[in-house]
Design brief:
The complex is a heterodimer. Chain A is α/β, with parallel strands linked by helices. Chain A is 35% helix and 26% strand. In chain A, a hairpin with a 2-residue loop joins strand 1 and strand 2. In chain A, helix 3 packs across helix 4. The two termini of chain A are 28 Å apart. By secondary structure, chain B is mainly alpha-helical. In chain B, strands 2-1-3-4 form a 4-stranded mixed sheet, with helices on both faces. In chain B, strand 3 and strand 4 form a beta hairpin. The longest helix of chain B is centred in the middle third of the chain and has 39 residues. The chains are: A alpha/beta, B mainly alpha. At the A-B interface, helix 2, strand 5 and helix 3 of A face helix 1 and helix 10 of B.
Chain lengths: 296, 434
């Protein structure tokens, strides 16, 4: 799926300001950004729920047809279920709306729900389930027609660690099957762990995108972690050339302008202060990267 | 997948989920009970008055016997003509009670087909005046004839009084004739068969009955239009609040989704209406408590047909009310104006029942939200010119076509709006070209 130069305004608010991104089959794609950055609007446009003011959506090289869209699985943020409908019935219903024959829709609904651990709850109403279990039903509804593209809005919010692992496993299985998966999240550590690629948006624009490993290596500033015996950190306050320093678990993280000898200068300063237990280059986490690109 | 398939799937879900919901079961049972009670009460109200009369002594007993004959013997008149059975028992009537007698009392003309009143009279002998007074006080008896008096607790029903006075006169005349040596035939001739009544417009009564039935039917129609219309609105809000609508719109366009919802709920409403009408008429026919006028079936069929057309209009308007609200709590506000309009339509229908050719009835015929409720009543009254019927149907259908489009746009525009209440104009704007 390829989104090009999407623009969307709601009254005076610019939601999307020339956003472009690409989601590949066989990859789990994380979509991160602050609240109001334009993630949900982007997803809604990709699914055909909203018309963009400008820009284009292409699926396999052409604007998606109604039949293509039925092959997309979508899990909106929280809920997305009929509260009073029995869970097996509604998963089958969404399957039928996606074009499955009735018998197959019922069959797959039962299978997916059972796989997600809800085999005993098939006849329960959605509102009778816990939030975590409701999320599993939603997931089953998004999976039921074996989608070519899965779009999930904040799928991990509110899940316990076991739920996170189950969902991560399902997403991985879907990309292995050949689907493209994109989900939005605020949990950057999760995105880092699960995703192959990431797109970071801010104020309706993409500020960083690509494979996570590459991004971390390319886009992050040079950073060293220094740990002194006794946890000394004052020494770093007036280091020449170092842009910023902060302490983390008794170690000092020092941001550098470049690797041109500055790291050695930091090491010298540290050694002048006391006994250095640890000195290492730090590849910044996605969270570090996010803070950097979004602050600007 | 074709739009028709989506419509069918959505409609089927509505029928299944609503059809087996508890609200549906409860509302159906309550309505059926109300209908059954209405039929029974209407039947009870149809019974004529009944009196218990006591007598003390011989002459009062003779009067009472004649009285019983008068009350029951109007039957003789029944098989002549009169649909408005009367047995104006008192041929020579004094001026003051002549009216009462003529007002069709005693004539219990059993075969009348239009629900005439029948007087039930039980006569018994009472030992003496003291006993009579005691039983009157107890409320056992309505009146007791003692010598030349009629004893009552406080006042005497005028209808019963005129019957008793007539019987009294008849017995006196017969006695006088017998004393004067008249033959039994001559005596009998002095108490002639009651006069028969011939109605000049025998259908008018049936018209009234049909209007009565149509009014009850219109009340049902109103509750169905309003109740199921509201369900369309609340169903849409439920989908918005739960965000199901996003999943649905990702699969199908707003039009087939809305059409399916309206079709599904309309079918449930139709089934319920047919059930109510069927049970109501069936009970009335089976118990014989309510006389069904000729043309009853036509009234029923017209009501059901008007539900179908009217529901499209109401459902679409309610759908807009649902689409611009974000939460169930806001529905009262967004559907409030629709409620007022529906009530207005219903009151116009009641006015049309009182005066099927009046100004209100004529104007409301051409108001599309009122017409579905007004026309069945005017038609039942036989007061609906063909051109007005055709014009009203055309107008309602045209309105339906218009609101379907409007509702689809508002639905599409409001579907993703889940914070607060959206002005209709904005909803239309958000719908874009959809």
């Amino acid at each position: 799926m390829e989104l090009t130069d999407l623009r969307k305004r709601f009254g005076d608010v610019t939601a999307l300001d020339g956003l472009s991104m690409r989601v590949e089959p066989g990859r789990v794609h994380g979509f991160v950004g602050r609240n109001g950055a334009g993630k949900t609007t982007t997803m809604r446009i990709a699914l055909g729920l909203l018309e963009p003011d400008g820009g284009s959506v292409r699926w396999r090289g052409a604007p998606p047809t109604a039949d293509d869209r039925r092959r997309f699985g979508y899990m909106p943020e929280e809920r997305g279920l009929y509260p009073k409908m029995r869970v097996a019935d509604q998963v089958a219903y969404f399957g039928e709306l996606s074009g499955l024959p009735p018998a197959e829709a019922r069959d797959r609904a039962r299978r997916h729900l059972t796989d997600l651990g809800l085999g005993e709850r098939l006849a329960d109403r959605a509102e009778e389930l816990s939030l975590g279990n409701q999320q599993r039903v939603q997931l089953a509804a998004a999976l039921v027609q074996q989608p070519d593209l899965m779009v999930l809005d904040e799928p991990f919010s509110g899940l316990d660690p076991v739920g996170v692992d189950v969902l991560a496993g399902v997403l991985r299985a879907e990309v292995t099957r050949g689907a493209a998966v994109v989900f939005s999240s605020h949990q950057l550590d999760l995105v880092e762990r699960i995703c192959d690629e990431v797109t970071i948006v801010d104020r309706g624009r993409v500020v960083a995108a690509g494979p996570i490993g590459t991004l971390r290596a390319e886009r992050a500033r040079p950073l060293v972690r220094v740990e002194l015996e006794g946890g000394w950190s004052q020494w770093a306050a007036d280091l020449p050339g170092a842009r910023a320093a902060r302490t983390e678990n008794g170690a000092v993280l020092v941001e550098l302008d470049s690797w041109d000898g500055e790291d050695q200068a930091v090491l010298d300063a540290a050694r002048a202060t006391g006994r250095v237990l640890r000195f290492e280059r730090v590849v910044p986490s996605l969270a570090d990267l996010f803070r950097e690109v979004v602050q600007g | 997948m074709k739009a028709g398939t989506v419509v069918r799937l959505v409609a089927r879900r509505e029928v299944r989920e609503r059809g087996r919901s508890r609200e549906m079961a409860v509302s159906t049972v309550i309505s059926l009970v109300v209908i059954a009670v209405l039929v029974l009460v209407a039947g009870a109200g149809d019974d004529g008055p009944s009196y218990d009369v006591g007598t003390v002594g011989e002459r009062p007993a003779a009067v009472a016997a004649t009285l019983a004959e008068l009350a029951g013997a109007g039957a003789g008149a029944g098989d002549t003509v009169g649909s408005d059975g009367t047995a104006g028992a008192d041929g020579a009537g004094e001026a003051d009670d002549g009216d009462d007698a003529a007002d069709g009392t005693a004539g219990s003309d059993g075969e009348a087909d239009d629900g005439d009143e029948r007087v039930e009279l039980a006569v018994e002998r009472v030992a003496d005046r003291a006993e009579a007074e005691r039983r009157l006080a107890d409320g056992d008896l309505d009146a007791v004839l003692v010598d030349d008096e009629i004893l009552v607790e406080d006042d005497l029903d005028r209808e019963l009084e005129s019957l008793i006075q007539a019987a009294h006169r008849e017995v006196a005349i017969a006695a006088a004739l017998a004393d004067a040596g008249a033959t039994p035939d001559q005596v009998a001739a002095a108490s002639p068969r009651p006069l028969a009544t011939r109605a000049l417009d025998p259908g008018a009564d049936a018209d009234d009955d049909r209007v009565g039935l149509a009014t009850i039917g219109t009340f049902l129609l109103f509750t169905q239009l309003f109740g199921f219309g509201y369900w369309v609105a609340s169903g849409i809000v439920e989908e918005k609040a739960s965000r199901v609508i996003e999943v649905l719109l990702a699969k199908a366009g707003p039009r087939p989704l809305l059409a399916g919802k309206i079709l599904g709920l309309g079918l449930v409403g139709l089934a319920q209406l047919v059930l109510f009408v069927g049970v109501g008429l069936g009970l009335a026919a089976a118990l014989g408590t309510v006389e069904l006028p000729p043309g009853t079936l036509r009234v029923a069929v017209e009501l059901i047909a008007w539900f179908l057309v009217g529901f499209v209009v109401y459902a679409c308007v309610f759908a807009m009310g649902g689409a611009i609200a974000s939460r169930v709590e806001e529905l009262q506000g967004t559907t409030g104006p629709i409620t007022l309009v529906a009530m207005g339509g219903f009151f116009a229908a009641l006015a049309a029942g009182n005066d099927p050719e009046g100004v209100v009835a004529q104007v409301a015929t051409f108001v599309p939200v009122a017409a579905p409720m007004v026309l069945p009543i005017r038609s039942a009254a036989g007061a609906l010119p063909a051109w007005q019927a055709v014009g009203a149907v055309a107008l309602v259908l045209a309105t339906a076509g218009l609101v379907v489009r409007l509702a689809a746009r508002v639905y599409a525009g409001g579907a993703l709006f889940t914070r607060g209440q959206l002005p209709v104009r904005d909803a239309l704007a958000r719908a874009g070209d959809g």
